[in-house]
Structure of Bacterial surface antigen (D15) domain-containing protein:
Amino acid sequence: MHARTYCCTCIFTLATLTLITGMWCADSCLIDHFDRLNTGLSLGIQQKSACGTFLSPVTASHGHKNSFLSKSEAPSSINQESLLPNQLRFLSKNMGIAAIGSIAGVAGECLLQAFSGGGNGCGGWGDGGFSGGSGGDGGSWHRYLERLIPFANAEAEDRSYDSHGLKVGSSRNITKLNADKRYKISGVELLDKRTGNIVGLDDPFYELITMKPGAILTAAQFQAELENLSSCGMFESVSMDAIPESNGMLRMQIIFAESEWQHSESVRCVNVGLLPQSKPPEVDLMRMTDKERERFMKNQEEEYSLRLQETKPVILPKTVEKELSRWIRGEPRVTARVLQRLRDQIQKWYHDNGFACAQVVNFGNLNTNEIVCEIVEGDITKLMIQFQDKMGLPCEGNTNIKIVDRELPQQLKTGHIFNIEAGKKALRDINSLGLFSNIEVNPRPDEEKEGGIVVEIKLKELDQQTAEVSTEWSISPGGSGWPTLSSIQPGGSVTFEHRNLFGLNRSIFGSVTSNNLLNPQDDLGFKMEYVHPYLDGVDDLRNRTFKASCFNSRKLSPVFTGGPGLDEVPTVWVDRAGLKANITENFTRQSKFTYGLVFEEVTTRDETSAICTNGCRTLPSGAFSMDGPPTTLSDTGMDHVGFFQANVTRDNTCFINGTPVGARWIFQVDQGLGIGSKHPVFNRHQLTATHFLQLKEVQEGGKKAPPPVLVLHGRYGGCVGDLAAYDAFTLGGPYSVRGYNMGELGACRNFLELATELRVPIFGTQTYGFVEYGTDLGSSKDVRGNPTEYFRRAGSGMSYGVGMKLGLIRAEYAQDCNTGSGALFVRFGERF
């Protein structure tokens, strides 16, 4: 049975970085597993042509597999029952020898071509999609199957065939077919000798048949097919007839009697992954006496018992074994079909839990009260990390291997069982380093240790030095209402980065921005940052990163903003320039703690870039009132301040079909150190809590609709001590209370925000309704100069509305409950 192959391509795009994460040879049931990748990697599934590889049959034995009949010694007869005397059939019954055939590798539930050979290997995250391993003939399974099916791809390139020349409708044994003719088959059917009925096409025995309707085969190939069926141990007897049809083709009929064993009470599973494969003894049982045969069987049983002592425990839970034992006790006899169902149930548990290389390879002790199920679980025997150049050829990398190794999950290390989730986690964690343009995680069979898995990690490094220049022109409404260029002078930015210094993932980043690149001194902004990960050393498990930066930025202050009944208020700009150094410690993937020091110079300026000491407003006469709230703590328009800053984040959200589900907590505190203008000592803190509650379970997948989600959000902030006006909390805006402008509700020392949002997918688009409320808790009067009262702002407000998300854009209609008016807004990014 040809294995079906699907290709799964993972593409991760962050800014200008594209990550091709690999290809996987798997059955269709694997695709659902990869559609659930929700932590930063976007997956697209593409179906490719079948790879046409074969997987070995799973065998069942008591003692050695197929110990009484090796393929090289298989008789040329068509009917096993007619050629094997009663003694041999008695021997096969007592030794409990059977073979479980395979479909697409391991029945319909195979997730991975673990031992298919032909270079396809175990499959893996490969170049451009999930692809097979890079070489090897697949080990003894593949070599055994080559002998088993000599005509695996024997269909001739020449599609012509010979007419059978036989009487239509008359059944004829394949031994009587013309050896020189090439016959075309119209179909294959199985006839159960015991019941006399044709079995349905859904019968698992069809998995064993490699002949396909429309294939052109010779009599020798028919015979080889029959020999494969005869020696697999599934049948007590099997024969093959050809039924001529009027169109010149043959309909093949396989007559069989299913193998049966005695009733069994329990099932025991063992891991034989790294044990050497037992070889059938080269003996001629036909020439043995009864005593010699009995002694031989006893030796086989002893050897098998010793082999079981060398096996390892399986990771299959005991509860599953008990359920299987309970089920097997309900079967009156153990048959080949029962063993196939048993195999499928065991493999389903492994594959559902991500152990894609696990495979049932043998059943033993069939004529006893306890069936032994031998499983190859996919033990990792070797981990290889290889760097590649842009052409995909091996090369010496710049990155320290320890940097990559510490990002790998423990379950991907030597001695563990290979798991798909561990491979996906390795992709995410290695990608988070930001050092590689292409990452591949390829599991393949170990050619040296039978049943082992070699995990290959192939990496292509990004260029260490990059630089980028971008320009932009602003557009604003003209006098006639049509958009015009604000200025012919271009704005833009220049950025440069030198990453992975000394191969230890250290980096230097710099950027310069200006609204006028031709004369940048007016509003020049810059940032220079140095990042030093693994502060305690690469070998230390404590994950701390040191960052140091110098910066200069200019932002419009929402503190000095007019209320709804006030005419236009002159803007106040806040310039910040200084130094910042902090340490970030990651406790888990969801939790981190950042702490450090900030020293900055804060300058407030008006629209002409002159230093501004007070806020102002327009009087009814049209003149400006300059007696507004002081803009700085020093009353000079310029402050110097140093403070300690800390931030704790706990984020366990995940994405289900593109929408976040989970909870996020953020606590931040700024503590003044008494350094700077008027020696400010203050404590400024805020707590943010956001919960995304999934209201309905949905099927996960790349094109599936997201679940309905209820968002509950709350934020509290407070400040005690010396507080400059530019550091006051503001209410209103797209990330505070929607429906209001930035700071339109007030500026305060303490505040509380509450919001709820219901997200429902409609026609593939996420729509939502929301209600939000914010209040200054009566603390606006405690801000120097009381900007809230001066600019006639309410101090609290509520809004509600509806919206629709279109990619990164949010189109919202929000109702302002203070004035009773509504407006349409277009925003970018997420609210929460």
Q: What stands out?
A: The radius of gyration is 37 Å. The longest strand covers residues 659-676.
